[in-house]
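Hey,
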Amino acid sequence: MINGAELLILTLIIAVILDTVAGEPPDIIHPVVITGKIIAKVKPYFSKFKNKILSGCIFLLSVIIINTLPVIIIMYILYRPKNTIILIIFIIIYAYFLKSTFSINSMGKHIKKIMDSLENNDLKSARGYTAMVVRRPVNDMDAHGLASASIETIAEGFVDGYLTPLFFYAFFGLAGAIVTRIINTMDSNVAYRDTQNYELGRCTAMEDSIINFFGSRITPVIFRISAILLGYSNRKIMIINTTDSLNAGYSMGAMALVLNVVLEKDGEYIINSRGNQPEINDIRKAMNIYYLSSIIFLILFVIPVIAILFAIHLLSIF
């Protein structure tokens, strides 16, 4: 009979394969898209309260419960380890929900659209695709600026779109991965520094910073290993953060250093100012680092942690 660690690792591998081969499911059955719709629907209700900070915290907790509890109940009902057919169904559904918490395939597809547009000197299309993944004006960006924004998206996306969900999966299983994805989705929807969202989204922004704290600080090490294995760089990586963000600067700084490029957001930060202006080939290298880093993190962290925690659990029983 399959044990707990084997089950977690097996479903993880299936989820990664599912993401690589099939990509994202249709919006109508995509858990993250559904979460976004729920957020949009209930947001006006929580926005009415006078104490918006407290309301925002309750808002976040409510969305977590609404989206997580049904999945956990379904998984609990389906978990029948002695029934092979039901166990297979359980593994498939479990892997499907786990896959929805991270994304490798869609990052590559979206970045490829930007690269293809730049290669064809179609700045208008490149700006349009870039605008879908960054919170900044893109209308006046040149090719270097678009390349910088793309590389920043890849570096930051590795942490909140891949590493963090699987980090919490290693310790807390599917529930941990789902909760982190919900927090990240909430952060994208309500954690803005405008008058309408600032107080309402403060709790979400704080939680997003907390869950990404560890991942952002180990990412430079992973990026360095990947860059060396790919033959891009053998430079010593210093863990730096030259942005106002508590976490984002670490992954972006590491990517800027291994590629030796300058990454800049007008009026906010300049990372690795002595680096070269980023080009299309640097975007391609950043994506290759993203792909290899995804594998390295699984092999060096997620799978070992699952195995160790299960071994500790067995020892505690005996």
